[in-house]
Amino acid sequence: MSSVNKTEPVIVHAFINGEQYETDKRAPRENPSNPSEIVGYSPENTREDTIRAIDAASDAFKDWSQVSVTERIACMQRASEKIKAAIDDLGVLLAREHGKALYDAKGELTISTIWMDYACGIVQEEIKDRVHEDERGRVIVTHDPIGVVSAITPWNYPIILALVKVVPALLTGNTMVVKPSPFAPLTITKVIEMIASEFPNGVLNIVHGGSDVGSELTSNPKVGKIAFTGGTKTARHIMKAAADTIKNLTLELGGNDPGIVLEDFDVNDDRAIRRIVISNFLTGGQICMIAKRIYVHRSIYDQFVPRYIEAANKWIRIGDSLNPDVTVGPMNNEAQVKFVQSLIDDAKQRGSEIIPLGRILDKEVYDKGYFLQPTLVLGADNEDPVVVEEQFGPLVPIVPYDSEEQVIAEANDSIYGLTSSVWGEEEHAIRVARRIQAGVTMINTGGLPGFDIRFPFGGVKQSGMGREFGPGSFMAYVEKHVLTVPKSGELPYIPE
């Protein structure tokens, strides 16, 4: 029996200069567990609306940039407490509009407030003036805000991947305009409004829409920085749009993250096998940092595969996102279902073995929604699309390998380099990890369980530029300004 609560559709608006901004056109957002149910509506903003939001942010920057760090922290702390008090209701809304299981939705909101509190606790030390003084004089390095920041955020983790931009940007004295994905627009709009209400008008704004809105946010000369999480193809367009005014960029993009299981991995370790399964299928595999292709040493391959299938069938329970027994909900949208299914069909045509995983808890619910049963692919070659492409769904190939040199070469044979994982004896795994081309490599864990907000996150190659999270996240939103005060205004080699 589905546990979806039937409620009236939620209507959210753009939020510009401290006020809700209503529009004539609205876009519906369906429930992926039951697409006939409309969860809510978001506005379809225009280029003119976007300019209005950018102008509001630009005007607000003049005063906000001069506000003390202490006062900025106080605003953010109040916003964090407000979100914490609403996590239960926000979690239900996020699960309904996104499709992720309820525990996953509440977990994302909780991590977001942990990030807010962590950032508030360290920002003052990180962006304080650095002073160097010696016999030559004094040098002061300040950290000045950039100005107006546009944030374009994705649907898979709509809250935390927006707040990883909003929090450091506002704490360092910038102002912002956020554009969320139309595939998960409702909860993030409510969260942004909660935060914005604790700040002066115009400091934080949110607009919704398509290419016109995105184009204005990436090309408007009043925007000094763009922070984007999404696909590599879209990032190329953003870089071109930003080129005319040489905007500062942070890009967190796609990945085809390898997981390497070494010959000394303990196939009888139930918890380790379970962690690998979770690293593949949490949030239905719709995570940029999920393990998307697993390489297993041939000496343990025949033992590993049945143990993996056993663990997957035990952990994966598929159904309505609000069902408390569910671990994997529907996919977020129909287009993504079709794409992942096309990879499965292609692998089957190439002769690979296709193995459905997990239990469907309610076939009637499953047949109505954007569901795709988690799937294991065996027998694929390293150049097959199911291995080469980022699936971004509940699909994983397991590929055997014979030597360490071979698997390192195959793991690195990708245009991407976001995250990776190595599984085995710890020191051996660390030695292998050092040779992987990735921004993050996790040892004996993977995906979100291996993620730590205290340290930088980002990719190499075409997985992006710049880093988010950790103390360094503030540096992405400031310009270093060097003030020199020499004891003498002359250099010794300049003649009288």
Keywords, please?
496 residues, 15 helices, 23 strands, alpha/beta, globular, six-stranded mixed β-sheet
Main sheet specs: 7 strands, mixed
Q: What spatial order of strands do you see in the largest sheet? A: 16-18-19-14-13-20-21
Rg, please?
A: 24 Å
Question: Would you count the extended β strands for me?
Answer: 23
Stretches where pLDDT is under 50 for at least 5 consecutive residues are none
Which structural class matches the secondary elements?
Answer: alpha/beta
How is the secondary structure organized here?
Layout: E1 10-11, E2 14-16, E3 19-21, E4 26-31, E5 34-43, H1 47-64, H2 69-85, H3 87-98, H4 102-127, E6 130-134, E7 137-145, E8 148-152, H5 160-171, E9 175-179, H6 186-196, E10 204-206, H7 211-219, E11 223-229, H8 232-243, E12 248-252, E13 258-261, H9 270-281, E14 293-297, H10 298-315, E15 317-318, H11 334-349, E16 353-356, E17 359-360, H12 363-368, E18 375-378, H13 385-388, E19 395-401, H14 404-412, E20 419-423, H15 426-433, E21 440-443, E22 464-465, E23 478-486
Parallel strand pairs: 1-5, 8-9, 8-11, 9-10, 11-12, 13-14, 13-20, 14-19, 15-17, 18-19, 20-21
Antiparallel strand pairs: 2-3, 4-5, 6-7, 7-23, 12-22, 16-18
